[in-house]
Amino acid sequence: MTVAQHTQYSHNGNIVHTIKTDLAAISIANIDAKSVKDSPYFGVNGTFFNGPELTGIAMQGGSAVRPGGTRTGQACGTSTKRGTMFCYNGGSAVATGVVDYYNEANLNNIKWAIGGYSLFPNVSYPSDTQYYDAIHGHDSSADCSKTKAGSQNAFRFGPKSKNNRTAIGWDGSKIWLAAFASENAWGVRQFMKDRGCNTAIMLDGGGSTQMGYAIVRNGNPSAASFDPSGENRKVYTMVRVSALDWT
Questions:
Q1: Distance CA 200, CA 194 (A)
Q2: pTM (two decimals)
Q3: pLDDT (tens digit, 9 = 90+) per residue, 216-232?
């Protein structure tokens, strides 16, 4: 039986909501023009989008859940590769890769894939400078002249600034979903490492960061949500949690 657990943390003085769940409970869902709160699902917002078209990878069962979901969106018209999490071997294994098209990962029997940009929790960095180097995250988000073909071009999302953030990680036995009220990518990386995740990526953030979860009172689960921006933004895709039980 699949189980999920919601927990609220404080990290660097700000609220973080998490869902810890079994791998079998996770899927990537199309929710059309809805917010997480207005969708019928538990989970977090998914990948990047531009209107109804996706600009990040969002695959389920070998097919994109929405148009654009087979590849990473270009940054300022420049070919870009970003951190993507894959569930493969029919749903028994998890890996991340830095790819443009989802099939560049060369993994067998991919069950689902979701794109964002890399946190690299398994890499040892002397400081945040080297991490931001790795994701090409230092420059001004408005300066298209700084894009580099084949890099993650993460600077376009302002990873060094404090903002609402969403992440997904794998600790070797459980999936962790996290929604942050205010954090930069380095702080998100540290939080996911502290949860034991050896692989993790950031998903869409800012006003897109949202989580739907269940609170158990007197043995009965009831729906709740976390939307730190208060926008109730339409996000089009979700990392869905369909656990049979909540604790």
A1: 12
A2: 0.97
A3: 887 788 999 999 999 99
Query: Degrees (nearest 5) of the Cα angle 220, 243, 216?
Result: 20
How open is the CA angle 26-30-34, to the nearest 5 degrees? 115
Which CA distances in Å does 231 have to 36, 188, 228? 11, 22, 8
Query: Strand pairing partners for 223?
Result: 214
Residue 73's domain comprises: 3-246
**Structural domains of the chain, count:** 1
CA torsion 47→176→30→203, rounded to 10°?
-10
Whether the Cβ atoms of residue 133 and residue 82 lie closer than 8 Å to each other: no
| pLDDT tens track for 155-186 | 999 999 999 999 999 999 999 999 999 999 99
Q: If you count them, how many residues does the chain have?
A: 247
